[in-house]
Every structure is written in structure tokens, then in C-alpha cells.
Amino acid sequence: MLQEVFDAYSFVFEEELLEEISEVGILKEFKENEMIIAIGDSVSSMPLLLSGAIKILREDQDGDELLLYFLERGDTCAMTLSCCLGHAKSEIRAVAEMPTKLIMIPIEKMEEWISKYKSWRDFVFESYHSRLSEMLDTIDTIAFLNMDERLLKYLRDKAKINQNELVQTTHQQIAYDLHTSRVVISRLLKKLELKGTIALNRNSIEVIDL
Amino acid sequence: MLQEVFDAYSFVFEEELLEEISEVGILKEFKENEMIIAIGDSVSSMPLLLSGAIKILREDQDGDELLLYFLERGDTCAMTLSCCLGHAKSEIRAVAEMPTKLIMIPIEKMEEWISKYKSWRDFVFESYHSRLSEMLDTIDTIAFLNMDERLLKYLRDKAKINQNELVQTTHQQIAYDLHTSRVVISRLLKKLELKGTIALNRNSIEVIDL
DNA sequence: CCTATACAGTAACATTGGTTACACATTGAA
DNA sequence: TTCAATGTGTAACCAATGTTACTGTATAGG
């Protein structure tokens, strides 16, 4: 395990910390589309992503959902982190976007390391910083863009995360992520196809024109 | 100055830190509607609110704006804080919602204190936590609520901040804050008035039914 | 007092996005 | 092979929001 942690985080942490991480951290693996954390789950450890990607979703009381952002290798979830420090419950839902490995750090250690390791402290601040930026970006997207632009951004983000211009998903799934209806997505996708921006197939969309 | 800092933050910081704050902090005062920071301004110090309230706005490239949240006494701006640590430029605009006093802390001190004072570290984390929560709330609002519900929430928030059910503003200003048009706001306000939820006057709205 | 300006009310219309309904194709399981 | 479940295409309609245009009124400054 040490090797994997080392690969993903060596550019950030000193060796001593890396060893502590691999001592106390618990390795977990998730299959594609497996739920990692649900809204209301109590949070007692903090995840470090070793490989794969995670989709972070917000849900309202009616169960309507909205994609907030993706997490990748080397990221942690500042939302979870925030919950950890407040010993609170999760306000978001996390789903594995692809097969994903992560290492769970118990809260106590995470707090201890903040005093002990400067690199850890910097990492935690940097995480908060990234997450605030992502949230701002999400707000910009839903506040200032129309659905067609949001859809295109979604496809690009997803293509980037998967390092593949062939996005494997259904119209219904996109509709869930963007908090709209399947019909709207089908309609807009068709328009994009006519413009030559994408090519449509059952269960997949090819992003042609970035 | 020490007294004011003490009043606003004594429940958080130890005396030694409070004294450091009043030594290196620079007191600034802003009139109602005065701009505190603009998008793109470089951030070299971090504000602690002593009194008053600040409106935090996001702007897109066309100058369209959107209210993110309010800051009150005892708050700091984690966005600014985030910028400080990254030595970056402001991604938001801050405007005094009412006459406001704040104390500016130079970046160097703010970083130094993170190692030096646990209370400061906790305060900074707590700020990040609050800001993430506020951002989530903002996202919920624009993603899941209709304009009439957003308007009502806006009026309630504003009444709360001003501790006064008489909200002094214009339809145009509300439209800017909610990123919509004046006509839409006038229309919805009229509907709320007919329902007896509010009473309308020139330059002010009375929130009757919380 | 007079007048320019800001503020508010409202109608008519355009656009975007959401809903319902149905057709048809693909796929996997019985 | 057959059938049910899932995915997609599309029309028709509806609701929410945005736009344009015009009205009248309050207010501040000359």
C-alpha cells in the first residue's frame, strides 16, 4: 500500500507522514457506480484518492440531485473534511465514477497531523481552496449558463475525467446530474449532433469538437 | 481598537492573540454600499468583521452578478482567506451592506498564527467550513428553488441581517442580486403582496409573514 | 414650483425549459 | 425465440422566466 500512497502523494508529503498514512490508513476499493457515501451518513474518516474518480452530488429533500464536481487522484473531499472537523453528517453523496481506490484516514489522525506536519496542513488548506473554487465554478455554471452550455461543459468534463472522448452514459443519467429531464437532454444532444459537435450512439456520446 | 476586537472575538481567541491582532491589524470603516473589494483586486490581507455586514457577489464576464451570501460580525471571508494563502486575486466582489467596521490582518501574520495559535487555526477551519456551507446553500437555492421562493428567501435573509422587517432597497437592486430582471421582481413582489406576505412601498418592502 | 430622474406597475410577447404521450429500437433474460 | 425492460426520438403542449414598451408617480435639485 505504501507504494501506491507514495505514487499518488509523494510530491506533497514528507516520507515520515507517508509512512504514518500507510500505517493507519485503511485501503478501500469501489466498483464503478458504487455509492461511497450517502447524505446523512456520519463521517468518521477522511478519504485520500489513490486512483479512479469520484462524482460528488447534492440532493434536495425531494431526492432531486445535482452534480457538484469530480474528484481525482491526489484529491481529498474537503466537504468530508469539513464534516470531520465538525463531527457532523455528510451533506453530499459520493459515487465512484470508475473503479476507484482510496485510503481512509481516521479523524483523530487527521487532526493530529495538522499540528504535526506542515505539509499536511498545507494539503488540507489547499483542498479547501480547490473545493471553494470548484463550488464557485458550479455556481457560475448553474447561474450564468443555459442548459445547452451546461450540457457541453458536462460532456467535456466527463471526457476529461475519463481521458476518453467517448462518454459512456445515458441521457437519463445526464438529466439526473444536471437536474433536468431526459427529454430536454435528448433534445439538446440532438441539436449538438446536428451542429457536428458530438456523435450520438446508444449508451455513449462521442465528443468531437472540443 | 482592542476593545472592539475583544467584543467581537473574545469568545474565540486567547488574550495574547487578541493583543497581537490589535497591534498589527489595520482598522477600516466603510459606508453603506461602499465597495470593499473588486474582482481581480490582489489580496494582501484578511478581513475580520467587527460590526456591520458585507454582501459577497460573484460576477460573470458580462458583468452579470449574483449574490452569494452575507458576512456578519465575527465572520471572516474564507474566499479572501483562500486567495491569501494562494497569493491570488479576488474572485468575488464585496460591498458593505451597512456601515461596517473591519480589521485587516496582513497575510504573513495570518500564516504565522496558524502555527502559533490553536484558536486561530480552529477559527480559520471554522471559517472554511461556514463558507462551504453557505456555498452549498447558495447552490441549493439557485438549483432547486423557483424565482418566487428565491425572492422570499432573499427578503428574509436581508431582514435578518438588518434586524428589521423593513427591507430598504429597490426592485432593480434585488434583480441584480438574484441575477434576473426588474420586471420579473416587480411581478413576483406584487404576487407576494396580494398573498399578504409582504407590503410594498417605494424604496422599501415590509416582510409581514415570516 | 418645475422638471429630470429614478422607481414601480403592467401588458404583450418571446424564449427556455419541463411535461406528457407515444413510437420504435436494442438488449438481456426466460 | 419471445418478451420485458431500457434507451432514444419527437411532437405537442405548458409553465416559468426574460424582454420590450409604455404608463404614472415620487423625489431631489435647481
From TrEMBL, chains A, B:
Alphabetical keyword list: DNA-binding, Transcription, Transcription regulation
Protein name per UniProt: Crp/Fnr family transcriptional regulator
Keyword Transcription attributed: yes
Cyclic nucleotide-binding domain residues: 13-76
Gene3D superfamilies noted in UniProt: Jelly Rolls (2.60.120.10), Winged helix-like DNA-binding domain superfamily/Winged helix DNA-binding domain (1.10.10.10)
One Pfam family in the UniProt entry: cNMP_binding
One Gene Ontology MF term: DNA binding
Gene Ontology CC annotations of this record: cytosol
UniProt KW Transcription regulation keyword: yes
Native organism: Gillisia hiemivivida
Signal peptide start and end residues: none
Domain of life: Bacteria
Stretches assigned to coiled coil: none
